Every structure is written in C-alpha cells, then in structure tokens.
C-alpha cells in the first residue's frame, strides 16, 4: 500500500521539483551573484534604496488594505452561502467564479472603462444629478482592481470550510447560553480559521506583487514592488530582479509565520 502511495505521489514530486524548488533555487542563485558570477550582497542591499523601499512599503500597504476588504466582504457572504440550499449555493458560487474564466487583462481594462472620468460610474452619477468623481489614477482604483480580481480566492476557501461546519456545534453553543456573537467568536471563527488563513494567503501574495493593475488603474502613478521586478526583468537585470523577488518571498513567509503563530496563540488558545 505504501509503495502504491509513493508511486501515485511521484508525478507531484517531479512537478514540485521542476516548478517550485528549481525556480526558487534559481531566484536565490541570481539574487546573490553579480553579472560576472561572483557572490555579492549588493543586489539585496540595493532594495534599501529610497525608491525601492518606498515601492515595497506602498505594495505592502495596498495589499493589506485589499486583503482586509476581501476578508470583510467574503466572510459574511460565505456564511450566508453556507446556510443556503445546495442548488442556490452552486449558482451563487458560480457567479463569483465566472469572472475568473476571463482573461486577467480584459477584466482590468473593463474596470478602466468603468472608473474613468467619462466612464460608466460617472455617467450614472450625471444622470442622478450628482457631481462626477475622479477615481482612475488613484490608490482607490488600484485597491478596487485588487479586490475585484482576488476576491474569489478569499471567498472560496472560507466557504469550503463553513459549508462543512457541523451545525450541532452551533446548536450546542446556543444551548449553553451563547448569543449570536459568542457563537461566532467561540465556535464558528476558530473552526473557520484554516479557510481564513488560506484565503489571506491566496489574496495577499498576488496582490503584494501585482504590477499590471497599478499600471492601468493607477495610470502609472504608483510604483509598486511588482513594477520594480518587471522593470528590472525587462532591462535584463535578472540579478536585481531575483534579489527583489527573494526579499519579497522572505517577507511573505515571515508574515505567514507570524499570522499562524497569532492564530494558534490567540484564537485556538495554544502555547
């Protein structure tokens, strides 16, 4: 039986080596050598320059705001979906997944049309007699784009956990005198934490390294860390691009470790 399991796991092992381990090793290698092939720390230290450090902190701030908005929208919606019938669930979940079938660039261009000064939003406001608003080219537009593009990655893991939640646990908590908020805090939230962590990870990682959304919805006014990586790659400076990607990966891993520790400590009550 163990031999069969190992045999079934072989394709995944080769896939992980080819598309996960080897690329990470390549990023590590290029990040710590110069163009002559000598070991150097200059690529890593160059990230501390005012331009790139500003881009890094701006990327972190926008991605955290986008992730928080996705979580605040996705969690109550996932709870509502988990209490619906199976047919209703499938239809509503399909609505959220459907945009993911379209090309990422098309979705971004669609939001450019919606948010531009002469776009759909301002057209509706004009018909209602409300003064137009300027959204395109602002941080708000970038955040809207991030939330729209990555929202399904937040709601799906949370929904998959909540839909499997044993309703008898909620009933038991109510029988023991818990009100609605106590049930949510003491029962539902801790049990759904794996889905929350998964959703945060799936939204935070791509949003912190995004570059196309900031270029189009931000009208090129915001220089994010993803823009820095793309710019260095286009300029054929693979060493600095790899160094930025390596540091970004370390920051994300540290953030995930801190979040896991805090979850274990304050939600599950672990040591």
Question: Overview of this structure, please?
Answer:
The chain has 271 residues and is mainly α. Helices cover 76% and strands 0% of the residues. It has twelve helices and no strands. α7 (139-162) packs across α9 and α8 (167-175) packs across α9. The longest helix is centred in the first third of the chain and has 33 residues, at 50-82. It is globular, with a radius of gyration of 22 Å. The two termini are 37 Å apart. The relative contact order is 0.13.
Descriptive key words:
single chain; 271 residues; 12 helices; mainly alpha
Taking the sheet with the most strands, its summary is:
none
- What's the rounded overall pLDDT mean? 86
Low-confidence stretches: none
Helix share bin? over 70%
Shape: globular
Number of helices: 12
Radius of gyration: 22 Å
Give the SSE string: HHHHHHHHHHHH
Give the termini distance in whole angstroms. 37 Å
Q: What is the SS-derived class?
A: mainly alpha
Beta-strand proportion: under 5%
Helices and strands, with pairings:
Blueprint: H1 2-31, H2 42-45, H3 50-82, H4 86-97, H5 104-115, H6 120-127, H7 139-162, H8 167-175, H9 180-208, H10 212-216, H11 225-234, H12 238-267
Quick structural overview:
The protein is an all-alpha fold.
């Amino acid at each position: 039986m163990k031999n069969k399991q190992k045999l079934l796991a072989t394709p995944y092992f080769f896939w992980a080596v080819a598309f996960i381990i080897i690329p990470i090793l390549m990023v590590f290698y290029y990040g710590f050598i110069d163009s002559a092939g000598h070991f150097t720390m200059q690529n890593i230290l160059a990230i501390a320059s005012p331009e790139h450090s500003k881009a890094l902190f701006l990327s972190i701030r926008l991605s955290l705001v986008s992730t928080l908005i996705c979580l605040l929208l996705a969690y109550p919606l996932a709870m509502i979906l988990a209490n619906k019938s199976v047919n209703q669930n499938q239809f509503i979940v399909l609505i959220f997944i459907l945009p993911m079938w379209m090309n990422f660039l098309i979705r971004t261009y669609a939001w450019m049309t919606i948010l531009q000064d002469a776009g759909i939003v301002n057209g509706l406001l004009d018909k209602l007699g409300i003064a137009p608003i300027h959204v395109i080219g602002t941080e708000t537009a970038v955040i809207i784009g991030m939330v729209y593009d990555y929202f399904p990655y937040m709601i799906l893991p949370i929904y998959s956990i909540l839909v499997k939640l044993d309703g008898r646990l909620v009933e038991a908590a109510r029988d023991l005198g818990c009100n609605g908020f106590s049930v949510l805090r003491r029962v539902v939230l801790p049990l759904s934490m794996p889905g929350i962590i998964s959703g945060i990870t799936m939204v935070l990682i791509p949003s912190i390294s995004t570059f196309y959304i900031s270029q189009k919805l931000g009208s090129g006014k915001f220089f994010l860390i993803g823009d820095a990586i793309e710019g260095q790659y286009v300029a054929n400076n693979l060493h600095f691009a790899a160094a930025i990607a390596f540091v970004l990966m370390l920051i994300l891993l540290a953030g995930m470790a801190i979040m896991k520790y805090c979850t274990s400590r304050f939600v599950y009550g672990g040591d």
